[in-house]
Design goal:
By secondary structure, the protein is mainly alpha-helical. The chain has 5 helices and 2 strands, in the order H-H-H-H-E-E-H.
């Protein structure tokens, strides 16, 4: 069964006629701004549909947010599953608590918690070395 990332690749190759990226990188400032606008549009849709109680709209908006985020990662050549794995591992070491956001149910970084960023950097360096 194809993964969500496989679906994203299929969409970008067959609908948008884009070739699979061979390098990891930030494409351009324009690309970053375009993708930010796109993500913000989907987040706004989530907010509007959620505040109106529209569960179908909420579900669609959440799927669109993931679709745009994964598409952005794909276009940037990111080995997203590997990155996801290290972020998930780091998140699983957090504890329930209140953070600076002030949410009642949040995941707080306990003493000694380590950021996933060094592991992400290593993943990206390996990917760059492959190309």
């Amino acid at each position: 069964m194809p993964s969500m990332y496989d679906d994203i690749e299929e969409f970008h190759e067959h609908v948008l006629n884009l070739e699979k990226p061979t390098q990891v990188g930030i494409i351009s400032d324009e690309f970053i701004l375009e993708r930010t606008r796109f993500l913000n549009e989907e987040v706004e849709e989530f907010t509007i549909t959620g505040m109106s109680g529209d569960m179908v709209g909420v579900a669609d908006a959440l799927a669109d947010i993931v679709y745009v985020a994964l598409g952005t990662a794909w276009q940037m050549g990111l080995p997203f599953q590997d990155i996801w794995n290290v972020v998930h591992s780091a998140n699983m070491k957090k504890v329930r608590g209140v953070t600076k956001r002030g949410n009642k149910n949040d995941a707080a970084k306990p003493p000694g918690w380590q950021s996933p960023e060094p592991a992400i950097a290593a993943i990206l360096l390996r990917k760059i070395d492959e190309t």
